[in-house]
Design goal:
Shape: rod-shaped
GO molecular function, one term: DNA binding
Distance between the termini: 58 Å
Strand order of the largest sheet: 4-10-9-8-5-6-7-11
Radius of gyration: 38 Å
Protein name: LuxR C-terminal-related transcriptional regulator
Order of helices and strands: HEHHEEHEHEEHEEEEHEHHHH
Strand content: 5-15%
Structural class: alpha+beta
Helix content: 40-55%
Length: 354
């Protein structure tokens, strides 16, 4: 019988009864089994079993005679040997644990490498993102919220996705005001991407063809690294998360507004005329156009910029006249192409999943 964890003898491997017997023996020169049984308040048979254990472990010595007696050995020496033996056993057990863990990590690492990748450096994230984006054949699903990490862009004019790949993005409205996110989203919409706004998003995320997903390790520190998820079950769950956010988001399109645009090109409508190079507008107009590109209505823009609604409408109307655009959507698209919303951004530069 082994000592319970709270027994002072648990570290030696002695059970409580054997420990009590030893405690008694060190108080007397020698004792027989009956005396030990009386002192420990146990049966003689139990006392004899404990005494045999002490003898086998060299903690006590049997003195033969008409009635056998037992004497304790020097505790420091005898118990020191026992503890040294226990330490050696623990060391061997620790070595076995380390060997087993090494094998486990080797096998599990190989098994899990295709399920989740950890990217710790920004250049790793950038390179892996580019590979996944260029490898897409069907669709890219994209949840975007601040803080953003820049520097993932593909060269201007070289789209990061193949023709025919459907791009759907949901931007968090609160963070949808910097030049990179505005211009990228508007330009992406012009290339056939679909854009929606939501007041709050649960996570930054990019899902590639529903076979891989990219998301940050830390939501508040995108530079801390990212995870590439390949597990089919996890990717499916993340795609479902996107679809839920997409369903609850508001389309950034004039199709849901009173000033809805005419049918898109290819469905009976002609694109707005390109009037050629046009001088960039003043900073106030640029700011109004940037906010308009997010899907904000005139009243909201007026409140944000602390100007009247009529002022907003005049700036938008003037910009449309200069661009030769007939609708607000066309104004936003042409303004982005002219660089009025900031540096020109390609669809392949959308890296909000980071």
């Amino acid at each position: 019988m082994h000592a319970p964890a709270d027994s002072p003898w648990s570290g030696t491997g002695l059970d409580p009864l054997t420990g009590r017997v030893l405690e008694h023996l060190v108080t007397v020169p020698a004792a027989d089994a009956a005396e030990v049984a009386a002192a420990a308040e146990v049966s003689t048979a139990d006392a004899e079993r404990a005494l045999r254990h002490l003898t086998d472990t060299s903690l006590a010595v049997r003195i033969d005679g008409p009635v056998p007696r037992w004497a304790a050995g020097p505790p420091r020496t005898s118990l020191g040997v026992l503890l040294a033996r226990r330490r050696a056993e623990l060391a061997r057990a620790e070595g076995l644990v380390e060997r087993l863990h090494a094998v486990y990590e080797t096998v599990s690492g190989a098994r899990s490498a295709h399920l989740v990748e950890l990217l710790e450096r920004e250049d790793e994230v950038s390179a892996r993102y580019g590979q996944l984006l260029k490898g897409c054949e069907a669709e890219v699903l994209h949840l975007a919220k601040p803080p953003y990490v820049t520097g993932f862009g593909v060269d201007a004019g070289k789209p990061g996705v193949a023709d025919g790949v459907r791009m759907r993005s949901v931007y968090e409205t609160e963070g949808f005001s910097d030049e990179v996110s505005l211009a990228t989203a508007v330009h992406g919409t012009g290339r056939g991407g679909e854009l929606r706004l939501a007041p709050r998003l649960p996570v930054k995320l990019v899902v590639f063809d529903r076979t891989a997903a990219l998301l940050p390790v830390r939501a508040d520190r995108p530079a801390a690294g990212s995870l590439v998820v390949h597990s089919p079950a996890l990717v499916e769950a993340l795609a479902a998360l996107f679809e839920s956010a997409w369903a609850g988001a508001e389309p950034v399109s004039l199709s849901s507004r009173t000033d809805a645009p005419p049918p898109a090109c290819g469905h009976g409508a002609s694109p707005p005329e390109d009037t050629g190079p046009t001088e960039a507008p003043d900073p106030r107009t640029r700011e109004i156009l940037r906010l308009m590109a997010t899907g904000m209505k005139d009243d909201t823009i007026a409140r944000v910029l602390k100007v009247s609604r009529r002022t907003v409408q005049k700036h938008v109307s003037d910009a449309g006249t200069r661009l030769g655009a007939r609708t607000r959507f066309q104004i936003a698209l042409l303004a982005a192409e002219r660089g009025w919303l900031g540096a020109s951004q390609g669809l392949g530069e959308v890296v909000v999943g980071q």
